[in-house]
Amino acid sequence: MIGICVFNSVFILASTIYDIADKAGVSIATVSRVFNNRNNVSERTRDKVLAIAKEVGYHPQANAQGLASRKTNTITAVVPVISNYFFMEVLGGIQDKLNDHNYELTIYNISAGKDTFSQVEHVLKRRASEGCLFISIHLEQEEWKALHRYNIPITLIDEFYEGFDSVSVDNQQGAYRATKYLLHRGFSRVAMLSAVSTSKPIESRLEGFRNAYKDAGVDFDHSLVVSGDSVYRDGFTERGGYEAMVKILTMKPEVEACFCASDIQAVGALKAMQDLDKNIPLIGYDDIELAEYMGLSTIRQPMRDMGFFATQNLIDRLENPKKAISQTIYTPELILRNSTE
Amino acid sequence: MIGICVFNSVFILASTIYDIADKAGVSIATVSRVFNNRNNVSERTRDKVLAIAKEVGYHPQANAQGLASRKTNTITAVVPVISNYFFMEVLGGIQDKLNDHNYELTIYNISAGKDTFSQVEHVLKRRASEGCLFISIHLEQEEWKALHRYNIPITLIDEFYEGFDSVSVDNQQGAYRATKYLLHRGFSRVAMLSAVSTSKPIESRLEGFRNAYKDAGVDFDHSLVVSGDSVYRDGFTERGGYEAMVKILTMKPEVEACFCASDIQAVGALKAMQDLDKNIPLIGYDDIELAEYMGLSTIRQPMRDMGFFATQNLIDRLENPKKAISQTIYTPELILRNSTE
DNA sequence: TTGAAAAATGTAAGCGCTTTCATTATACTT
DNA sequence: AAGTATAATGAAAGCGCTTACATTTTTCAA
Predict the structure, then answer these.
(1) C-alpha angle A59/A65/A67, rounded to 5°?
(2) Residue A147 half-sphere exposure, CB side, CA atoms within 13 Å?
(3) Number of neighbours of residue B141 by Cβ within 10 angstroms
(4) Mind giving me the DSSP string for B267-295?
(5) Measured CA distances, B290 to A81, B18, B201, B287, B299 (Å)
(6) Helix crossing, A43-56 with A28-35: angle to 10°?
(7) CA separation for the pair B186, B8 (Å, rounded)
(8) How far apart are CA A89 and CA A291, in angstroms?
């Protein structure tokens, strides 16, 4: 369905500070002052300027302001993929915080195809924002270090590097708690439904899984860690969970319970159990909103809080560049629901 | 856990085009040409400039470029809330498209508290981007019309207004299909699990629901439309669905099947049925990835495609401002799964 | 070799703002 | 009323880039 339509609308000639100054009979400096809320402008003048600006729909141009003042009033969030529950929640928290402060948010998406580091560098080089929030971006020590030269405030979320502020969750601990719980319940063969093994969170969760076994004095069997075959989103998908659970159920029938690397995978796993008409206790990871309604036991990560807090942290640093670097680590919490009944 | 750490890193002095020109022994115009991939620069010069730029970590500043060239290379997506499955998917599609083209994405979040129109105007006035994608932003005819004066390309997603390109889904049709299916299956009392009634999608879905009744020759009973009490996200939440289904099951025991305004509400509704130990056929709306794994019958909206296509459309208009305005309307599709078995 | 066309480079004028410093108008004191 | 402190305003220099136009260098046909 295609429609054509002609409008006799009067376009705005993208007026500038000069136009406003002219019409108001003042200098551009005064107009600038009005828009920057400087208090040394008489009320009369301010009203006149504002009235004219409103009439012609004027508003300072972001670029010109940025160039002249060397401030952009923008913070950039760098994420691997937007369409993922974790990032979505974190971004929500960031928004919440930003709404109170006068910053604009730019989201920069790292494409999986190209080199992460150079994409990150690109963001910093452009200098289009005053500070950056890096969400689940994992780089080598050396690479993080190299970013210091751009001298722009950075707060890491879900990653740790001593040179920048960071906000993360103790993944090892989360996995440990879930596994320990299952082991203590008396299940001796607890599997880990994993994802792409090179992914950062998987590494530490696997460690926690192992540690729980060790501390419980139960022999650790490597083959109990299984993941699906799809690598899209590092396997953190319903599909990935489904595939993995099918493997577990068919190839390791002795498994009595399962710790799952994410709630979204757990959804797939649940389906697999249903399809294969089996049922074993399951613990997810994240506590996305769905989990509660699906009766999924899980490890809660305060995703929204993390975004909120990290943003606060970044803003603090913007206002006080010399403040000490801080590392905040949340401890995840075990939430018990039906799936472990 | 707080850590302090001192780095003896050498910050970059934010070099400019002048510094590069100096070191390379060329004029700033030449440096500019190199970074804009103009082909009238000798290979020797280009290599030298690039080498020096790399050495000092130089990259053109977005603001200065934007000001001088009057182009920002940025498109802005305006959304009501990020943390919502629909927007998330649409944004994913936008990203996919943008990754191929050389545009940066800025996401602007409309806060629920303040006036939508003025927030939208703000985005346009700043002129920080070349074009805008409005996702599920609903304004009055007059308001949309007023935006023409800013003379910046806009593509609407999930909204219709004749003056701008738009990409939407026929909500009325979607609801109609779901309801008709249920009615034809022989359920005479089909309820609609709704959300905040003033929300745009609800209006048209309700219409489709009604139409299906009319066409089936079954008397329409207003009390069959029920929604939860929570208004967060206009009621499009698990909680909203749960509340509504509880009402249906307890107050309208004669209901035999249910059409649900979104998959996410359906998740809550499923839980309610389980808690109350009842079970009626259910059809959701959206077809989020989860739906497949939950066995939820639903009305599929090609969310990702919509984002992808709308972005393509906007880019087309950017490149050819005089192209005819187009309205694209997707027809949603009924997907049958377990929940209607 | 010469001269014209083509390629490479440079000069300089903005882009639309902010901000310092100088100037003028206003308010207040005695 | 005169003098001074203070508030309001203006002039002008830049912020770091792009780009039209001018100039210089290179290329190549005859």
Answers:
(1) 155
(2) 28
(3) 10
(4) HHHHHHHHHTT----EE-SB--HHHHHHT
(5) 18, 54, 21, 8, 13
(6) 90
(7) 76
(8) 14
Please return the burial class of B182, using the count of CB atoms within 10 Å of its CB with bins 0-12, 13-18 and 19+.
buried
Residue nearest the C1' of D10 (CA based): A27
Q: Which positions ≥6 away from B284 have C-beta within 8 Å?
A: B260, B262, B263, B265, B266, B291, B296, B297, B298, B299, B339
Residue A264, CB-side half-sphere exposure with 13 Å CA sphere: 16
Q: Which amino acid is at B329?
A: I
Answer whether B149 sits within 8 Å of A14, measured CB to CB: no
Residue type, A26: V
Nucleotides of C under 7 A from a protein CB: 7-12, 14-20
Long-range contacts from A316-324, C-beta under 8 angstroms, 24+ separation: A317/A131, A317/A153, A317/A155, A317/A165, A318/A130, A318/A131, A318/A153, A321/A153, A324/B2, A324/B4
**Chain B residues with CB-CB distance to A10 below 8 A:** 149
Q: Which residues contact B141 (CB under 8 A, 6 or more apart)?
A: B161
Each residue's pLDDT, cut to its tens digit, for chain B (341 residues) gives 333 333 334 454 578 999 999 999 999 999 999 999 998 899 999 999 999 999 988 999 999 999 999 998 899 999 987 667 888 889 989 988 987 888 888 888 888 888 999 999 999 988 889 999 999 999 999 999 999 988 899 999 999 999 999 999 999 999 999 999 999 999 989 999 999 999 889 999 999 999 999 999 988 999 999 999 999 889 999 999 999 999 999 999 999 999 999 999 999 999 999 999 999 999 999 999 999 999 999 999 999 999 999 999 999 999 888 899 999 999 999 999 999 98
- Token pair, residue B79, equals 């959304």
Cβ pair A70, B64 in contact under 8 A: no
At B77 the three-state DSSP class reads strand
pTM: 0.86
Residue B131 phi/psi, 5-degree rounding, is: -155, 160
Q: How many CB pairs under 8 A join A and B?
A: 197
Could you give the count of Cα atoms lying within 13 Å of A77 in the half-sphere of its Cβ?
A: 29
**Do residues B206 and B172 touch, judged by C-beta distance below 8 A?**
no
CA distance B47 to chain A (A): 19
Under 8 Å between Cβ of A311 and A135? no
